[in-house]
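User: Run a structure prediction on this.
Assistant: Running it now.
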Amino acid sequence: MDQILMKAQTLIEALPYIQKFNNKKVVVKYGGSAMLDENLQLNVIKDVALLKLVGMQPIIVHGGGKEITKWVSLLGHESTFVEGLRVTDEETMEVAEMVLGKVNKNLVQMLEKLGVKAVGISGKDGSTIKVEKKYVNGKDIGFVGNITEVKADLINTLIDNNFIPVIAPIGLDEEYHAYNINADDAACAVATAIGAEKLAFLTDIEGVYTDPSDKSTLISVLTLEKADELMQKGFIGGGMLPKLKNCIDAVKEGVSRVHILDGRMEHCLLLEFFTNRGIGTAIINNESILYDNEKAPEES
């Protein structure tokens, strides 16, 4: 009986969040180790399906970098990166499109199997994502795109017709050449274009730390002002720096809050969205939009 009551309490705890985010658009950037582990992958897709079934409007933007690296290697080539971006020649671009297309349709298949409607697209469909060639410190890194525009028409049409859009990060330039896009960049641009309430990054870390070597320094809520301070003082480095900059840009462009979550934790989306405690790090504009559960006891 105690276990049954605990389950009921969990549902009651989720109720205000379900009400708050009913019919709100939520972008989930799906990548990292959560894509490689079959059990974690299924749990992520179950979470997204549940978000849809309780009234939210989820959109998935996915990566596939580790799979691309694997297939490039199988073809006898070595992947090269410049400041975290894959150098993408014509052959690598073909591999990237093939792999991302396979990942895309697999995610759609899993969602459909759970009883929700999903459609897989890339930024090429409906010219949804327009890009220009990206250079890194003046260096040409091939078919890597810098996003110039996201047209929300097709995405909104799918949402309006009760589908979950599943988006692969491929875009077109003005000459209609295909370019590989950093999936984090694509997720931020999509979230901004559709006016998303939330953007959640599934990563291989627990969130933002003031000291990465000390797990007790995890920051639950990070304002733009505090984030800027941490970066200026050099507390944020490595792969977290560009990700945090993406989060900041998304919040500045109107996304209510951005979450950095550990995708290796089972049902991390549900724990963050529907529980009083939450997990990971939430980036917000300022403390005036803190949820009740995020405030100190004397503020509540």
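The first strand starts at residue 25 and ends at 30.
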